Amino acid sequence: MKSPKPLVEIVATGRYLPDRVLTNFELQKLVDTSDAWIRERTGIRERRIAPPDMGAAEMGARAARIAMDRAWVHPGEIDVIVVATATPDRLLPSTACDLQALLGAGNAAAYDVSAACSGFIYALQAAEGHIAAGRAEIALVVATEKMSGIVDWTDRQTCVLFGDGAGAVVVRKATESSGLLSSYIRSDGNLAELLWRPAGGVRVPMDAAVLDDRSHLVRMAGREVFKSAVRSMAEAADQALMKAGLTSEDIALLIPHQANMRIIEAPAKHTSIPLDKVFVNIDRYGNTSSATIPIALDEALEQGRIRRGDRLHAVAFGAGYTWASAVLRW
Ligand code: ACO
After folding, report:
1. Ligand 1 mean position, distance from CA 179 (Å)
2. Is 287 noted as a catalytic residue in this protein?
């Protein structure tokens, strides 16, 4: 089967990782854990933590400015800003509107997408829709997460997994054969309680009892998430490949959501992609939720691991429960 002609392409990427490194050894002083346990079960050695006064919008704006500079795009030229985040700076208004103000992108529409770790691919697909429908020429897609602000630092099962960071891409109409060949997004709200923040919204508003039992922070059924992740990433990977008219042999680089080294290996195994064609940086950043894929894409480009014409395959899963996949020709 021939690959479909892409409607949009990524013209440039950028990333922002805070300077502060939090190692497993430091975590040993916070909760009952060990560097050996964390490395063995997750592959994480360290993660980045944003300063207290820096929010998701600021981190995203830093990544976005780099992508915009590389794309030679001025803030006023951006038509739409789609921000994927599970860690909004405020509940109202959107982080995308804050980010728009920081960038001075006064001609854009801006909104958030809430799809947790799958958010970047959801947002990319939304941007594709705006451009394909002729409503926008230039879209900015940003995934930005301050996970350190929503994890429970007394819960060893979750606090060791996450980190802060942001990635951004500038998207415009495809001119040749490079671009987004396919994308696939799915969700299953019946599995919401596998990974969630039970309180702090309008249904169970924040009060003293919520603060006391810490139910406004992330709770996770780790083993169940693990099983669902392996299953859903395999399905998403197959669907996006099929829609792109490709097989795993055509893929030069697999970029899986960086949640856990064993989960990273699962879609590689499923698609028979050797590990040297799988991008991994979880050891340095942990799980930055929606930001893992654009951060990895930016690093892979910087490291020369992507050449013109290469086919890339991104696969993600996250709270919701959500899962997603995209195939790109660079
Ligand atoms: N340090 C030491 N021991 C720990 C820690 C820790 N940080 N966390 C859990 N343990 C203990 C448990 O209490 C348990 O002890 P017990 O046997 O005495 O009860 C033991 O280790 C084994 O626990 P499991 O949960 O069975 O360990 P598992 O091998 O499943 O690893 C993990 C746990 C790493 C959380 C794994 O289940 C996982 O990665 N799940 C997916 C998590 C994930 O990817 N979440 C994010 C996805 S979505 C998104 O990205 C937002």
Report:
1. 37
2. yes
Rounded distance from Cα 42 to ligand 1 centre (Å): 8
Give the position of tokens 């799809």: 115
List beta partners, residue 112. 83
From the candidates 24, 260, 281, 287, give the one annotated as an active-site residue: 287
Q: Give 218 Cα–ligand 1 centroid separation in angstroms.
A: 14
Q: What is the dotted CATH code of the domain comprising 8-176?
A: 3.40.47.10
Among 130, 159, 216, 257, which one carries the catalytic annotation? 257
In the chain, domain spans? 8-176, 181-329
Ligand 1 atom nearest to CA at 220: 45
- In this predicted model, what pLDDT tens digit does every residue of 296-321 receive, in sequence order? 999 999 999 999 999 999 999 999 99
Kindly give the distance from the C-alpha atom of residue 316 to the centroid of ligand 1, in angstroms, as a whole number: 19
Whether 216 is a known active-site residue: answer: no
Beta bridge partners of 219: 196
Token representation of residue 28: 């040993």
| pLDDT above 90: percentage of residues in the chain | 95
**Fold agreement between 8-176 and 181-329:** yes
Q: At what angle do helices 261-270 and 35-42 cross, to 10 degrees?
A: 20
CATH code linked to domain 181-329: 3.40.47.10
Phi-psi region of 289 (alpha: psi -120 to 50; beta: other; left: phi over 0): left
3-state SS class at 105? coil
Per-residue pLDDT tens over the stretch 27-39: 999 999 999 999 9
What is the atom index within ligand 1 of the atom nearest the CA of 287? Answer: 50
- Rounded to 5 degrees, what are φ and ψ at 259? -110, -35
Based on the residue annotation, tell me whether 159 is a catalytic residue of this protein.
Answer: no
